[in-house]
TrEMBL record:
NCBIfam families: efflux_EmrB. Pfam families: MFS_1. It comes from Lentilactobacillus raoultii. This is MFS transporter. It comes from the Bacteria. InterPro entries: EmrB-like (IPR004638), MFS (IPR011701), MFS_dom (IPR020846), MFS_trans_sf (IPR036259). Keywords: Cell membrane, Membrane, Transmembrane, Transmembrane helix, Transport. The chain crosses the membrane at residues 12-36, 48-66, 78-102, 108-128, 135-154, 166-186, 198-219, 231-250, 270-289, 309-327, 334-354, 487-509.
Amino acid sequence: MNKQSSLKQWIALLAMGLGVFMGLLDVTVVNVALPTMARGFNTTFTDLQWVLNAYTLVYAVTLMIMSKLGDMYGRKKVFLGSLVLFVIASAINGMAPTLLILDIGRGVQAIGGAGMMSLSMALVASNFEGRKRGLALGILGSIIGVSSASGPLIGGYLVEHFGWPAIFYVNVPFGIIAVILTIFYVAETPSYGKNHRIDLLGMLLSAVGLFAIIYGLIIKESHPHWSWLDIRVSGLLIGGMIVMAGFVLIELKVTDPMMDIQMFRRPHFLGTIAVAFALGAGIYAYNAFLTALMQNYIGYSAVQTGVRQLTISAWSLVLGPVAGILSARYSKKWMIVISLLVGGLGFFAMAHAISPTISFVELWPGMVLMGIANGMVNPLLNTAGMEGALPNEMGMVSGLLNVFRQFGTTVGVVGLGLIQDAQFENHLNTHLPALKMPTQALNGIKEALINAGPFSGHSIAFSSRIEKAPFAHALQQIVIRAYDNGMAAVAVTSGILVILGALGAAFLMRNHASQDIELKQSK
């Protein structure tokens, strides 16, 4: 009987792992398909941005809502419903005849992805006990780490061999398997909200507030030269913060709140969300810039880039279970701190390696250190977060960890992008005047490069028209060095963010015995 029960638990973990993998993969897998989509829909990259933004926005906005519904009515039910919704939306996306239908389908798909992601950790925690729980959460952390970093490889392969619809169709068979396994093997959790009212106002305010803040950051990312005080940016950000302040006030007064604000009084919980934010703002946000470096400047294809990025993601497969086992013996807090410091060293190594002749040979040592940090911290964070939660809070804690990880990624992409843009533009302004060419032509090229930005500046400098000019080589070297300055600054900033996460863990997180005391005092 024990063997049968144990086997059932691991099959349940497989079901939840499939859901998590699909949900997180679809955050990044679309990036490599955009050029093919642009040709297929006969549209521009600007119009295609909503294929990305629709998923990111809806995913972040609905994480907490799906977490609360799972806590109230049973996490298995909501997880299963989310799986079904995700599979149906994936099939519709693959068949989408127009860009509008694809954008809508991506938003619906994100609701399913949020439900799967926000409840997976809580379901694992309730389906496993003792040392098995740490191992299971470690394996789930491995899946989170791998899925976040393997988008370019999986997406590149599918698009190259089967076309862009394949990135959506692939979810259907695996999703159906996950649905069947969930029905038969995942144990349901108690419904903690049988006698509670749904906090509709709280859900509405949280959704509107998060949407405004994240959309404001996306707008700033799309228009880096707009001031933060521009009403189109500041209006969204300030409005979102006001709405979130209203959300907090409502949650403090209602009888059955969507979220127990008292959770934020626990230092341990604050430490875990600080680590989640640092992971997103440092490691996951940096992946977008690393992918651009490899593809746009070094010249690797999407598949070649994905294969090389296994240097980062493969560590999650190896270290996730190891971290789960070690967490039963050693302090999760200090393991997280040390791992984040290792990741910080990896970023500084990457910054030191950046040069006009850089290749994978110079990149891989830093990438290995980043991979070790990601592979260790994700599973340890999951376990530590669940240990610091009451049974009826596990879904919300899981959701909040994912909200802060996703929010950190969005903030990181915007912040790192602005730093890169500033360094890129400063270098161009300083060195382009040295080129011996007419002032009008120089100003035109400089304006084109600045408007294109670091990601696309390479294509302008190495265009067939520029190649014929006598100043081509000198211009290309200036553009490459401008990009390198930006990338080095991005790597250093990411390293600092990860180290700040380590400090947050060191000062705020508690060991298991302390957590138990804090939980009893907070009841």
